[in-house]
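Table S2 (text version). Query chain:
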Amino acid sequence: MLVPRQKTPDLEVPTLSHGNFNLAADNAKHFTLVTFYRGLHCPICASYLKELGRLTPEFEERGVKTIAISSDAEDRTREMADKVGTPGLRFGYGLPLSVARAWGLAISTSRGKTSIGIEEPALFSEPGVFLIRPDQTLYYASVQTMPFVRPVFKEMVQALDFAISKDYPARGEYTGPV
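Corresponding structure-token output:
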């Protein structure tokens, strides 16, 4: 289990147009917002990532870099990026499922073609949203076991204004006896 204020697992994947992404070297001023998505087969992911892409400039104004990552191969990731249509959003691909599991993501098996007629991969990870500090410690995490009911990026932008201005600490760090 990932614990706030503790180091996250390493994360390194190729991106479509920004070279290799390495969380440890991302150099965001305040946070890196890592959004793990299910893949091209997920219509909810496409809508969700459009919103992230639309708000990426607002995140950048607050010293937050964004990236969307899936276990899809490069070709399916490129299709998703084209569908989303937001060039400012980085897209990472080829996430090993062992790394997804290290991040606490749920892994699902294929059910064939989705409602939009795209085949699900044999195995893929379910969504997760993470804010990571530049020292690679966890600030915020939300992990889903289903494709729906995800954190709202617009609310996150507003929450970041408060968290950054008040130097609000990551919560949930206690691991002692209860």
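Notes on Table S2: The first strand starts at residue 12 and ends at 14. The chain has four helices and nine strands.
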